[in-house]
Structure formats: structure tokens, C-alpha cells
Amino acid sequence: QVHLVESGGGLVQAGGSLRLSCAASGRTFSNYAMGWFRQAPGKEREFVATISRSGSTTYAESMKGRATISRDNAKNTLYLEMNTLKPEDTAVYYCARGGYSILSGDYDSWGQGTQVTVSS
After folding, report:
1. Rounded Cα–Cα distance for residues 95 and 38 (Å)
2. What letter would DSSP give residue 73?
3. CB of 15 closer than 8 Å to CB of 120
4. Between the CA of residue 107 and those of 41, 73, 80, 101, 104, what are the distances in Å?
5. What are the pLDDT digits (tens) for 36-52?
6. Residue numbers in the chain where pLDDT is lower than 70
7. DSSP 1-54
């Protein structure tokens, strides 16, 4: 089991940017694909982005062109850089370890989440 800790959330105005980080414990970070998901109040958890072991990426349609997922295997850290943020991006953002997939069920370890709030 891996321990994932997100950071970097906060309050930002619409149009602003944030960079989320996810620090992973253990020595197997590079062996797994990683993903970001988010959950807004009263809504289901939804896919944001995923990155494979080799660095291939896939984004939710709503985030294409506004988000960049990356990883630093030497630092056991996953990143999500978001720009041109909108109020509808307000949610708790979670990082997860698992398959290179848009489905939350394909991930086996989750962080505790970090709150992102975008004001209009």
C-alpha cells in the first residue's frame, strides 16, 4: 500500500492558476500510472487526468488545454497544473495510484484530497 498526500489547493479567482502536488511514499511510484480526480459537493467523483508510467497523458474534456499532469519519479511526486480556472472547477482534488484509466475503480490507493475553490 502506498501513502499519497496532496497539497497545493486553495482559493483562487476565476482565470487564475494552481499547481497541485501529490507526494507518494515507497519505492514503487515509477511502476504505476497515476491519476487525478475531483469531487464537487453533491456530485460524483470525476476523472481529471491520468499519466502512464512512460509519461503518456489523458485528460477529461473539461480540462483539455487548461491542465497539465506530470510526474517526477525521482521525487515520487505527481503534479497537476491548472490554469484559466473556472468556478465549476471548485472541488476536492484527489490523486490516485493505479491503471492508466479514466475509471476510478481502476485505482487502488487514494490520497485524502486537497480543496480547490475558484471564486467568480
Report:
1. 9
2. T
3. no
4. 22, 18, 17, 8, 6
5. 999 999 999 999 999 99
6. none
7. ---EEEE--EEEETT--EEEEEEE-SS-GGGSEEEEEEE-TTS--EEEEEE-TT
